[in-house]
Amino acid sequence: MMNVVRERIVCEFSVTFCFEEYMKIALVQINPVIGDFSRNSRKILDACHEAQESGCELIIFPELSLSGYPPYDLLERPAYLAAHDQALEHLCSALPEIDVLLGCIEKRVGKGYGKKLYNSGFLIRKSSVVQRIQKQLLPTYDVFDEKRWFEAGNVPGVIECGGLRFGVTICEDIWHSEIDEYNTDPVETFFNSGNRVDCLINMSASPFQRGKESVRHRLFRTVCTRHKVPLLYVNQVGGQDSLLFDGRSMLMDGDGIIKAKARGFVEDMLIIESSSWSGDLHEKAEENSLAAVHDALVMGVRDYVRKCGFRSVVLGLSGGIDSALTAAIAVRALGPENVLGVALPSPYSSDDSMEDAKELAENLGCRFEVIPISNLFNSFKESLCPLFGDTPVAPSDLTEQNLQARIRGNLLMALSNKFGYLLLSTGNKSEMAVGYCTLYGDMNGGLAVISDVPKLLVYELSRYVNRDKEVIPLRTMTKAPTAELKPDQCDQDDLPDYAILDRILELHLEEHLGVEEIVAHGFEKDMVVDVLRRVRLNEYKRKQAPLGLKVTSKAFGYGRRFPNVQNFQG
């Protein structure tokens, strides 16, 4: 009997000792480039050495961090998968003595029905992959399409390190309570199995959108307080095409309190102490929503330009607020020496607008050039006169207005071609939605920086840019918006007031409401019908628009797929 009692005491002492053992964990948010396995591996390896030197026993990286997320149909190319596996093999052989939890592509072993790949987390220990955890919930909505490439896992992933048991989830796995599309809850599975879980891990590539951080906090708080365990959340950072990953990795304790948080929109490492479940707050726990949108756009421009191999950008400066905000973001992202602003005045451009464009460039410190288009405009009209015949060509004619926009687009593209600049398009979401833009004119470009920023948010962001000093001229901020393509033109000649238009568009695009449902919110039916008609008829324009940066819950592009040819009017 004494032996049994003694054995129990030794066993319990051993377990208690493991819990109290001092352990450091590193959460690392890196900015990968999809398909650049060499670069990504160097970032991972450098972080592992830094974490080891800081005394960490475990280092955790985001979802698919070796390949970058999302690789889309590169996953269908055998050469891409082979390069991934080769990079993983080389990386494993070079890793220092530290446990590494790394987001990787896993080939499904065996025959039978199903996709050939898993989206997995690999636990690497002593240069070998010792455990693989497959993502269970595969998002297939909005910008996500993971069921196109991946098979869902069905086994809870628990890893052990330093005497602790970690329940590993991958991005969507923890979102069950927010997304009502799944019939299984990976988090609940951990705790219903009867096995001990001391801490949850979530390896994510979770894109930014305005207000999403507060949703994450609410979700994580629910999980942590329900199960009385801490959560280690590590998220990808960086721009990838339209998607902007904000990082902001964090530790939340079992009471739902954020005890450590990485910076947003930059690479960062958090060191977590498991004995007290604590770390550093590299930024405030709660976000400034407006600052976050600004920083996301700055990061998106910087990453898209640099990752695509460009150094400099060019854009048209009209003296209006859209081009002013775009220029301010570009200068913040790339430096004033890498931004060229060009004014292209027509017969209808006001002196005030040209002065505002010049003042903006001076405030930003970027190069500024002026290319008048009046002679070209007249030449176009003369060339077309024999074909137009007696058809009136008045200043109010859309043909004449679009000619000006297309002349400007051609000249800006010529500068892009000649000097290797990336042309930035400056249209906002409100204009893009209703087609208040010119195909092959002001829509020209390689990146549409604010195409997911509604007009009212453009003004908010511009005030944010001016928070410390006047960067965007005050007159640009206060004058009535106008395209200046005809005499005395104002946007509201053709569009509802932006406060009304933006709300109708939000209800339609982000909340998916139809005519009658929007009218029930207090809007005039004729106006709602007209706005939704414009949205429907201009799908063809948006299909030909440059790629834009996503900052709302529903952006035009990959996450909103509507046919060009359709006649549903509800």
Structure report:
- The chain has 570 residues and is of the alpha/beta class.
- It is 38% helix and 17% strand.
- It has 17 helices and 19 strands.
- The protein has helices spanning 2-20, 37-53, 78-94, 186-192, 212-227, 289-307, 321-334, 351-364, 374-388, 398-419, 429-434, 455-465, 474-478, 498-510, 515-519, 525-537, 539-543, and strands spanning 24-29, 56-60, 99-107, 117-125, 128-134, 157-161, 164-170, 199-204, 231-235, 237-240, 243-246, 250-252, 258-261, 268-273, 313-316, 339-343, 367-370, 422-425, 447-448.
- The strands form 4 sheets. A 6-stranded mixed β-sheet has the order 5-4-3-2-1-14, covered by helices on one side.
- Helix 7 runs parallel beside helix 8 and helix 9 packs across helix 10.
Entry summary:
One of its GO terms (molecular function) is glutaminase activity. This protein is α/β, with parallel strands linked by helices and 570 residues long.
What is the topological layout?
Blueprint: H1 2-20, E1 24-29, H2 37-53, E2 56-60, H3 78-94, E3 99-107, E4 117-125, E5 128-134, E6 157-161, E7 164-170, H4 186-192, E8 199-204, H5 212-227, E9 231-235, E10 237-240, E11 243-246, E12 250-252, E13 258-261, E14 268-273, H6 289-307, E15 313-316, H7 321-334, E16 339-343, H8 351-364, E17 367-370, H9 374-388, H10 398-419, E18 422-425, H11 429-434, E19 447-448, H12 455-465, H13 474-478, H14 498-510, H15 515-519, H16 525-537, H17 539-543
Parallel strand pairs: 1-2, 2-3, 7-8, 8-9, 15-16, 15-18, 16-17, 18-19
Antiparallel strand pairs: 1-14, 3-4, 4-5, 6-7, 9-12, 10-11, 12-13
Helix pairs in contact: 2-3, 6-7, 6-12, 7-8, 7-12, 9-10
